[in-house]
User: Which sequence fits this backbone?
């Protein structure tokens, strides 16, 4: 009988996302948070203070150099929550040190480096997981279940809006910051990757860093996806819409009461015979608006638990390296299309 082992993890990067991983790991019974690492000593101090009352607090080791962290003999894996341009180097060193790796999105900034990490993890029999958090969101999983059961009918198209007035990052543009969420959701819903990408973006707030953009994804099945992202919008929106022949579904991540709304409305062919225009044979079908109950489970906790499960049972994560690589390829194509004024870029 397999006995689940307690896993020793460290968090590298104690900023916006890192502090949330630190909070979770310090509270979980089946994991030991043995160390945290950040170049900013004040960040380290603040995060240690937050968890002094937890079981990890007294034994927690602090590092400003992540290379030193890999010398810990009892360390099993790391969660890397640093800036994207550092992901490859840190993950490469971690895998070479024999540690399981969880990488925040985007996996890397180049497809070739993402592929290198995948190959190294496989060669060393290590878990490599990418933090596409919406693949562990109960609302998204509920919609995915409906799609797989064909309750929506044939999928026509998808679109998303991910906008707000800030926060404005300096390490990546708005496309790399926000769009990977929606690309991962679209791919997850459709079980396929885009065949081509078209994108436009511009800079209003600072020179040379795009802060608003629009992406169109064309899938092999003929389904279209459209993504709008912005750091300069007065409205905070986190919405994904799936339009099918039988139902339309809206995922509103900001709503506390109705995360998912299902519209049983559609357009269908009428049996009535018209003598004039053919379009009159199409009729609007009205129906109810349903808001299913969604389990109140924190997606970040589900994601971390999945990482621990994959380490313990040597199974591939839902958001594994290949999944992360597919998103990086799309984002590279987005950059290329923007440079060419929205010209489509075809993915291999």
Assistant:
């Amino acid at each position: 009988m397999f006995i689940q082992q307690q896993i020793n993890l460290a968090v590298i990067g104690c900023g916006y996302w890192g502090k949330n991983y630190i909070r979770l790991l310090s509270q979980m019974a089946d994991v030991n948070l043995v160390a945290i690492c950040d170049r900013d000593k004040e960040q380290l101090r603040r995060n240690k203070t937050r968890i002094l009352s937890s079981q990890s607090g007294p034994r927690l080791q602090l590092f400003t150099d992540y290379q030193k962290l890999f010398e810990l003999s009892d360390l099993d894996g790391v969660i890397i929550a640093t800036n994207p341009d550092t992901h490859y180097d840190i993950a490469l060193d971690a895998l070479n040190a024999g540690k399981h790796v969880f990488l925040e999105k985007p996996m890397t900034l180049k497809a070739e480096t993402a592929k290198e990490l995948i190959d190294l993890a496989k060669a060393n029999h290590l878990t490599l997981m990418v933090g596409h958090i919406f693949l562990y969101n109960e609302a998204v999983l509920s919609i995915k279940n409906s799609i797989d059961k064909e309750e929506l009918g044939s999928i026509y198209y998808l679109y998303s809006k991910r906008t707000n007035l800030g926060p404005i990052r300096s390490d990546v543009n708005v496309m790399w910051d926000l769009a990977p969420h929606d690309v991962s959701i679209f791919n997850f819903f459709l079980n396929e990757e885009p065949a081509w990408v078209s994108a436009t973006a511009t800079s209003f707030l600072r020179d040379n860093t795009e802060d608003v953009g629009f992406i169109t994804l064309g899938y092999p099945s003929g389904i279209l996806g459209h993504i709008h992202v912005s750091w300069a919008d007065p409205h905070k929106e986190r919405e994904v819409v799936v339009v099918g022949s039988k139902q339309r579904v809206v995922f509103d991540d900001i709503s506390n009461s109705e995360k998912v709304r299902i519209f049983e409305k559609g357009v269908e062919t009428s049996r009535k015979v018209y003598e004039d225009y053919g379009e009159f044979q199409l009729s609007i079908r009205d129906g109810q608006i349903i808001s299913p109950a969604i389990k109140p489970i924190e997606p970040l906790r589900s994601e971390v638990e999945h990482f621990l499960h994959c380490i313990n049972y040597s199974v591939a994560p839902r958001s594994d390296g290949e999944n992360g690589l597919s998103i990086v390829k799309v984002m590279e194509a987005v950059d290329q299309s923007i440079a060419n004024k929205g010209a489509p870029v075809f993915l291999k």
